[in-house]
Structures are given as C-alpha cells and as structure tokens.
Amino acid sequence: MDKVLGFGxxxxxxxxxxxxxxxxxxxxxxxxxxxQISFSLNPKIYPLExxxxxxxxxxxxxxxxxxGQPKKEIMVCLEGKKKLKRKDLENLKKNFLNELLNSVLRxxxxxxxxxxxxxxxxxxxxAALNPPQEKKENEKDKEMxxxxxxxxxxxxxxEKELKEGYKKDPLKIAKPYHNYK
Length: 181
Hints:
By secondary structure, the chain is of the alpha+beta class.
C-alpha cells in the first residue's frame, strides 16, 4: 500500500495543518499540471524523514503531497496555494529540492555529532547531580591558618612603616612637584 501524506490546509482554510490527503496515482516521473508540479525522489538518497520535514517547511507556500513506496520511490506533488505560472512552479520545485538537501545535510551532521552531544549532555547531568564535595575540616583549617599568617605579616609591615613614618623617600614622591624647581 502506498503511503500518502499531505502538508497543508486539510480543512479548506488557510491555516497550515498536517493531514492525510488522497492523491491520484501518478504515472509520469516528472510532470507539470495546472498549478502543480510532481516529481519522484529516490529514498536511498533522500530519506522520508527529510522529505517530510521539507514538506512541512513548504506548507505555507504550497500544498505538498507525498506518495509512493518509501523503500523504492517517493513521489512529491507541489500545488501552489496561489495561481502559479510554469516558471514559478519549476522554481518552487528547485527551492524544495534545495531545502531538501539542507534537511539531508542537517540529518547527516546530527548523526555524526550525536555521540558528542550525548557525552556533553551526560556530563552536564552528572555534574548537576553530583555537586562538588566540600573540603574536609582539616583542609579548611590549613587554608585559614595560611590566610591568617599572611594577614599578620601584612600588619607587621604596616606597623613598621607607621613607626618609621614617611621620612624615607627613595622615589622622591613625598615632595610636591613644584618644590623640585
């Protein structure tokens, strides 16, 4: 049984919705009819998932009908929502095929990068579930002792400078600039 899948208004209105639309069997491989163009695609080159995603992207511009046997041949029929000339229909097909190539490429990149993405997500989840463990009390005590020691050394230096005063001026910065003249 052929799979028939349509993208476009199924209620006759203008709101895009996904629905099943019956389509007559297409005998020709690539044909142009009043306000629609149909063509076949090789599912070994263009996976059905990519075709469906592209069809959904085009649902604002055209009614898209997908028919065929997903393992042998997939037929796509694009019908303009507005009255289109032959040239416009052919451009619609070209744009569909370009977007289809983009979908296939995005799908391939995702497959190639899937392991990396899974690793990143797993690492983020692991980090969120296992927060860093707090330092043990004796490690905290050692750090505090070192900090207190540094503070005492700085205090001694300050006291020494206060006792000596600012009498020593090796850089000659104690005098205002105008006194050097």
